[in-house]
Amino acid sequence: MSDGYYSNSKKCDDFCHKFCGEKTWAALNMSRVKCFLRGIELRTCFILFFLIPLFIVSTYLHGQKISYFLRPLWDSPPKPFHIIPHYYHENISMETQCKLHGWKIREFPRRVFDAVLFNNEVDILTLRWNELYPYISQFVLLESNSTFTGIPKRLIFAENRDKFKFVEPRLTYGMIRGRFKKGENPFVEEAYQRVALDQLLKIAGIEDDDLLIMSDADEIPSAHTVNLLRWCDDIPPILHLQLRNYMYSFEFYKDSNSWRASMHIYQMGKTRYAHYRQTDVMLADSGWHCSFCFRHISQFVFKMKAYSHCDRVRFSHYLDPKRIQDVICRGANLFDMLPEEYTFKEIIGKMGLIPHSYSAVHLPSYLLNHADEYRFLLPGNCKRDSNCSTCLVKQ
Ligand SMILES: *[C@@H]1O[C@H](CO)[C@@H](O)[C@H](O)[C@H]1NC(C)=O
Ligand SMILES: *[C@@H]1O[C@H](CO)[C@@H](O)[C@H](O)[C@H]1NC(C)=O
Ligand SMILES: *[C@@H]1O[C@H](CO)[C@@H](O)[C@H](O)[C@H]1NC(C)=O
C-alpha cells in the first residue's frame, strides 16, 4: 500500500510541477494563485490517491471493528438484569439454602428436564451430563444433519452414543433432517430446530410444573444450582442463569456475563424453547459457559464454519490450524473481533488478550476426577491435537 501511495504522489508532483512551472501569461500574472493552487492540488491528490483508498481498504478489512468500536454511539445496552444473590456451601442444608433465597423447601423435588441442540461438543457434553446426572429425570438431545448455516454435518452424537451409555435409560434422542436452503439466514434454521426440540420434550414426557433447562450444550449449570431450584418452592417461573464465561478452556476466564441459559417451570402450551432473553431476573453464579472448548483443532474449524455468525469468518486464513492453535494459546480472538460491549470503557477494558487464569477451583467435578482425559480444559494445557479421528464435516 505504501508503494501505491508513493507512486501516486510522485505522479501528482510531476503534474503539479508541470502545471506550476509553465511560464504562461496566466502563471506570470497569478503567481500567488499558482502557489495556492499547487497547495490545493497536492492536498487533493493526497486525499484522492491516499486517504480515500486507505479509507476504503481499511473499511473493508476492519469495517466490523470500526462498527463494534462505535457501538456505544449506535446501540444502547439492554435493560440490566435483576440479579438474585446466590447462596451456597456444601455444608449447609437444603432447607437453609432455600431460606437464604427467601424460598420454602418442598416435600419432594421437582423433576428436571435438560434439553440441548447438539452440534459437535462431545467432550463438553460429557462434562455437562455428568455434572447434572444426579438431578435430571430426562436428558433430551436433538441433532440435525445440517448446521445452522446449512452445511451438511455428520450425526456426531449418534456416532458417539456409546460414550454416553450412563444416561441411556434417561435419554430422549431426536434427529431432524436439515432443510439445506441456500442463502437463508442461519437464525431461521436455528429457530426451526428449536421448535423441533419443543416436540421432542413432549415425547420425553414433560409435564406442568417440571423444571426445564434451556441452554446450549456448552452452557453448564452447576449441579448444586439445579438441586436448589428443584427443591425450593416459590422460585421465579422463568429464571436466567448467570454463568462464568470461559474461552477455549477453563484457563481463560473472560467475565461473568453469560446470561442466555434459563430455567423454566414448564407450562404446557406456553413454554417455548428459546435462547434469548425471556425475563429480567437472573440467579448469580450458576455455572460455566465454556465457548470453543474443543479437544481437536478440526472441531474449532468446523464450529467456526457452522456458527450462526459465520459471517465472522471473513478471511480463509482464520481457519488455518496453525493460526487457531496460536490464538488458543494466547487467549486471543478467533475472529479477530473487538469485544461486543456497550460502553467505550468496557470495550477498551476488554480489548486484547484474555488473561491466563491459574485457578481450577469450583469447576465441574467430572473434569477434575478425569483430569488426565480432559487435560486440555485445565490451565497450562493449551496445545491441541491436530489430528482428529472423528472428523466432522462431510467432505
Ligand atoms: C458442617 O456442619 C456441621 C454442623 O453444622 C459442623 O459440625 C461441621 O464442622 C461442618 N463442617 C465443615 C467442613 O464446615
Ligand atoms: C439428512 O437426513 C435425511 C434423513 O435421514 C436424509 O434423507 C438426507 O439425505 C440427509 N442429508 C444429508 C445432506 O446428509
Ligand atoms: C495423530 O495420529 C497418528 C496416527 O493416527 C498418531 O500416531 C498420533 O499419535 C496422533 N497425534 C496426536 C497428537 O494425537
From TrEMBL:
Coiled coil segments of this chain: none
Pfam families membership: Glyco_transf_17
Keywords: Membrane, Transmembrane, Transmembrane helix
Transmembrane recorded as keyword: yes
An example Gene Ontology CC term for this record: membrane
Keyword Transmembrane: yes
Molecular functions per Gene Ontology: beta-1,4-mannosylglycoprotein 4-beta-N-acetylglucosaminyltransferase activity
Residues annotated as transmembrane: 40-61
GO terms for biological process, alphabetical: N-acetylglucosamine metabolic process
InterPro entries in the record: Glyco_trans_17 (IPR006813)
Protein name: Beta-1,4-mannosyl-glycoprotein 4-beta-N-acetylglucosaminyltransferase
